[in-house]
User: Fold this.
Amino acid sequence: MMFEFHPYDIMTDKKSHRKPVSMSETRVGQLLKIHSLPGGDYYPQFVRLGIHEGQRVKCLERLPGGTIVLQKNRQQIAIGHTLARAILVTVIDENPS
Assistant:
């Protein structure tokens, strides 16, 4: 089953008063909004993948060793555990349908 995103980005973190958490703390199936990304050499790589602050992604899978697989539209992106700890996200929905 493919997860479809809404064509607009809702600023739900301000409305729900949810605090950003490390991406490494998220669970499979959660819908996330990127709050902040690490700078330096990683930032241009994120931009090339279409990942930026405010972008909505889904935590698709957690692999052994801490790797997190994200789904952005029809694209799947694997993020290593160390990098995932540096990315802050806001959980938008625990169990999107």
Observations:
- Residues 12-93 form a domain with the SH3 type barrels. fold (CATH 2.30.30.90).
